[in-house]
C-alpha cells in the first residue's frame, strides 16, 4: 500500500494541534496566508451566505449518489457544480461492473458465474495487488445493491451484459443512455435540495477544533460561504486536466495534460473541469493523499484528424473480441486484458498507432458503432472495409500502408487459436471469437491517452477523509475519482462508476449521521 504524504515533518494539522493554536490564530498572524485554510472566524468574518446540513461538491456519479442518499435520509443538501454542464465525466458513461442485480440479467456464457468475491479477486489481479483491499472489498460487496438502487431511482440498463475486460467471461451492466445516472438523479437533487451550477468550490472552512464546518465557493466575482451543519462531501472527480499535478505525479508523457483535455473536449466535455483544486484545498487543512502515482492511460478511440473535427470514435476499440494489430499488421497484446495493460502495450509500439479489426458479428454488438456510423468513417477515409479478409487487408495496405500479407496471416493465426481455444497472447477463451464473418473492417486508433487519475484523497471505508497522521478529519467526506486507493494502478472500465456510486452513498449516509 502506498501512502504519499503532502508535507514533510509535522503536518499542518499536527502543527496546529501541537502549538495549541486554532487556525484562526495562525491566520491572524499571517503565517500561512499564501495557502491557508479558511477558518470559521476569518475570510468574511462569521457570516455565512447560506446554511444547510450537507454540502456536496461535484455533480457526477459520486456527487449525485451522496446528495440523493443524504436527501432521502432527511438532510438538507446543497450541491455545488463548477461547470454550467451538470454531471461531470459521468454524463458520458454507460458501463457499471456488478456481480448481479435484481434485474436478473444472465451472464453471456453458461459456464460463467459471478460473485462479489470473484469481482474482488479480479479487481485485485488487474491492479497487480496495488489497490487497497479494504476499499475494493467495499465497492465489490455493495456493487449489486448500487445497481438496484439506481434502478429504483429510474435508471435503465440494456438487457445483455457486455463482456468485461480483465475478467474471465463475466459481463458488466450497460446503461441505456450515456449519463443515465445523472440524467435520472440530478432532477431529484434539484427538486428536493438545491443545485448551484457555475459555482466552484475553493476552500474548506474549519473551526478551532479542526472540524470542517463549511466551505467557500466562487460565484462569478464573489466568494461566498456555506455553513455545513453536518458535513462537506467532496466528489470532484479525477484531476486529469491539472497541468501541475499530472506532470508532478506521473511518468512524463509529452503533451499529456493537453491530450487528456482534448479527449474530454472531443467527447463533448468542457475542457478542463478536472483540475484537482478540491484535493489541494483538503490538503491545505491537512488531508492525506494516496496513490497519486497511479494514472491510467488507455488506448483512446479517436484519430487526431477526427478529434480536430470534434468527432469521437467512441466504441471502436471497446470490445474484447476484436483483434488489435500494429502498423506492421501483427498482433501485439491480449485484447481481453484491462485497458491500462493494453495501453502500456500500445505505448510500447514505435508509432503508438494500432488498428482494431472488426468483422460482421462484432459490429452489431451492443456497444460497437452501428454499421451506418462505420460507413461514415469509411467515407471519411478513417476506416476501410472488405467482403473478405484479403479485400479488407488490401484496402488497409492501400490506405494505411499495413502489409496485406502480414495482416491476412495474423487473422489466420488468430482464427486458428480461436478454433483450438488457445491464444498466443493468452486471451481468455471466452473472448476468442474468430474474425470470419463479412464485412471486415480496419481503422487506425491513435493513443491520445485518456487519463484516469487513480490517486486522490485518503478516504476510509466510511468515506471519511483522513489527515496525514491517519486521523479522520471531522465533518469531511470524499467519494469517487477525487479519492485514492480503490483501484491501484489499473482497473476495469465500469469499476469507476460503480465504486463512485457505492462510496457516494456511503458518504451521504454517514454525513447525515454526523452530529457536530
Ligand atoms: C468519456 C468518458 C467515458 C467514461 N465512461 C465510463 C464508464 O462507462 N464506466 C466507468 O466506470 N467510468 C467511465 N469513465 C470514468 C469516469 O471519469 C468516472 O466513472 C467518473 O468520473 C466518476 O464519477 P465522479 O463523481 O468521481 O466524477 P465526475 O463524474 O467527473 O464528477 C465530478 C464533478 O465535479 C465537478 N467539480 C470539479 N471541481 C469542482 C469544484 N472545484 N467545484 C465544484 N465542482 C467541481 C466537475 O465539474 C464534475 O462535474 C468515463 C470517463 C470519460 C471521460
UniProtKB/TrEMBL annotation:
One of its GO terms (biological process) is steroid metabolic process. It holds the Pfam family FAD_binding_2. Its cofactor is FAD. The keyword Nucleotidyltransferase does not apply. Keywords: FAD, Flavoprotein, Oxidoreductase. Residues 53-487 form the FAD-dependent oxidoreductase 2 FAD-binding domain. GO terms for molecular function: steroid dehydrogenase activity, acting on the CH-CH group of donors. InterPro entries: FAD-dep_OxRdtase_2_FAD-bd (IPR003953), FAD-oxidoreductase_2 (IPR050315), FAD/NAD-bd_sf (IPR036188), Succ_DH/fumarate_Rdtase_cat_sf (IPR027477), TAT_signal (IPR006311). The keyword Plastid does not apply. This is FAD-dependent oxidoreductase 2 FAD-binding domain-containing protein.
Amino acid at each position: 500500500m502506498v501512502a504519499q504524504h503532502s508535507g514533510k515533518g509535522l503536518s499542518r494539522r499536527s502543527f496546529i494541534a501541537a502549538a495549541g493554536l486554532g487556525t484562526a490564530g495562525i491566520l491572524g498572524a499571517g503565517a500561512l496566508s499564501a495557502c491557508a485554510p479558511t477558518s470559521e472566524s476569518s475570510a468574511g468574518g462569521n457570516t455565512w451566505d447560506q446554511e444547510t446540513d450537507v454540502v456536496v461538491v461535484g455533480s457526477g456519479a459520486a456527487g449525485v449518489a451522496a446528495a440523493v442518499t443524504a436527501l432521502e435520509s432527511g438532510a438538507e443538501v446543497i450541491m455545488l457544480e463548477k461547470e454550467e454542464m451538470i454531471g461531470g465525466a459521468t454524463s458520458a458513461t454507460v458501463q457499471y461492473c456488478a456481480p448481479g442485480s435484481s434485474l436478473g440479467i444472465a451472464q453471456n456464457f453458461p459456464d460463467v458465474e459471478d460473485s462479489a468475491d470473484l469481482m474482488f479477486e479480479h479487481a485485485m489481479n488487474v491492479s497487480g495487488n496495488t489497490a487497497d483491499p479494504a476499499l475494493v472489498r467495499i465497492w465489490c460487496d455493495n456493487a449489486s445493491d448500487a445497481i438496484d438502487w439506481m434502478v429504483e431511482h429510474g435508471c435503465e440498463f440494456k438487457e445483455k451484459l457486455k463482456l468485461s475486460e480483465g475478467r474471465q467471461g463475466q459481463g458488466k451492466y450497460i446503461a441505456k443512455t450515456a449519463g443515465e445516472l445523472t440524467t435520472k438523479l440530478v432532477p431529484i437533487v434539484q427538486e428536493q435540495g438545491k443545485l448551484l451550477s457555475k459555482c466552484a468550490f475553493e476552500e474548506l472552512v474549519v473551526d478551532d477544533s479542526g472540524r470542517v464546518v463549511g466551505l467557500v465557493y466562487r460565484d462569478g466575482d464573489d466568494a461566498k460561504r456555506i455553513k455545513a451543519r453536518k458535513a462537506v462531501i467532496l466528489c470532484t472527480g479525477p484531476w486529469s486536466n491539472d497541468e501541475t499535478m499530472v506532470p508532478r505525479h506521473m511518468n512524463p508523457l509529452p503533451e499529456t495534460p493537453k491530450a487528456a483535455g482534448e479527449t474530454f473536449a472531443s467527447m463533448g466535455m468542457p475542457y478542463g473541469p478536472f483540475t484537482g483544486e478540491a484535493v489541494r484545498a483538503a490538503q491545505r487543512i491537512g488531508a492525506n493523499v494516496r496513490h497519486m502515482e497511479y494514472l491510467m492511460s488507455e488506448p483512446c478511440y479517436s484519430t487526431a484528424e477526427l478529434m480536430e473535427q470534434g468527432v469521437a470514435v467512441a466504441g471502436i476499440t471497446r470490445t474484447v473480441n476484436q483483434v488489435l494489430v500494429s502498423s506492421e499488421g501483427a498482433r501485439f497484446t491480449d485484447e481481453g486484458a484491462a485497458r491500462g495493460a493494453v495501453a502500456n502495450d500500445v505505448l510500447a509500439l514505435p508509432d503508438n498507432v494500432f488498428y482494431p479489426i472488426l468483422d460482421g458479428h462484432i459490429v452489431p454488438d451492443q456497444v460497437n458503432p452501428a454499421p451506418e456510423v462505420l460507413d461514415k468513417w469509411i467515407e471519411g477515409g478513417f476506416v476501410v472495409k472488405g467482403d473478405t479478409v484479403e479485400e479488407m487487408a488490401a484496402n488497409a495496405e492501400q490506405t494505411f500502408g499495413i502489409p496485406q500479407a502480414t495482416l491476412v496471416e495474423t487473422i489466420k493465426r488468430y482464427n486458428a487459436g480461436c478454433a483450438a481455444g488457445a491464444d498466443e497472447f493468452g486471451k481468455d477463451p471466452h473472448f476468442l471469437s474468430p474474425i470470419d464473418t463479412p464485412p471486415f473492417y480496419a481503422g487506425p486508433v491513435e493513443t491520445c491517452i485518456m487519463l484516469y487519475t487513480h490517486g486522490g484523497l485518503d478516504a476510509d471505508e466510511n468515506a471519511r477523509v483522513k489527515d496525514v497522521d491517519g486521523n479522520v478529519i471531522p465533518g469531511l467526506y470524499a467519494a469517487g475519482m477525487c479519492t485514492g486507493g480503490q483501484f491501484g494502478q489499473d482497473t476495469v472500465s465500469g469499476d469507476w462508476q460503480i465504486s463512485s456510486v457505492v462510496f457516494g452513498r456511503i458518504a451521504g449516509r454517514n454525513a447525515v449521521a454526523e452530529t457536530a
